[in-house]
Amino acid sequence: MRNIPVDLSALSFVCVSAPRPKVVNQDTGEVKTDRNGQTVFTVGLSAADASGRVELLNVAVVGDQSVTIGEVVTPVGLVAFPWEAVLGGQKRFGVAFRADRIAPVSAVSSSDSSASADVA
C-alpha cells in the first residue's frame, strides 16, 4: 500500500472528537492493534486551509493521545493512503489517514524552539 505524505504547512488542525480505540469487529468489540500489540486509536480532526475550506479527518494513531476536543493540534508524520474493500457485497474505496502522533500545538512549538536554541 502506498503512503502519501501530507504537507501540513498550509493547514491548521483542531481536535473535534476525543481519541477512542479503533474497533475492527462491531459484533465482538475487537479492538485494532498494530504489529507490536499496541492499541490503535482514532482521533477526529478538522483541517482548515487559509481560504477557509474545512475537511473532517479521522486519523489513526498508535497509543492514546493526550489531546482534548477544541484543542489546536498537529498530526506529526501524517500520511494518507488509499484503501478498498468489499463490504456487504459492495466494493467500497476511499482514503484513510494515519499519523505517528497527535501533538498539541503548544507542545510542538516549545519542542521546536528548544531544538533551535540547542543549534544556536
TrEMBL record:
It comes from the Bacteria. This is Regulatory protein.
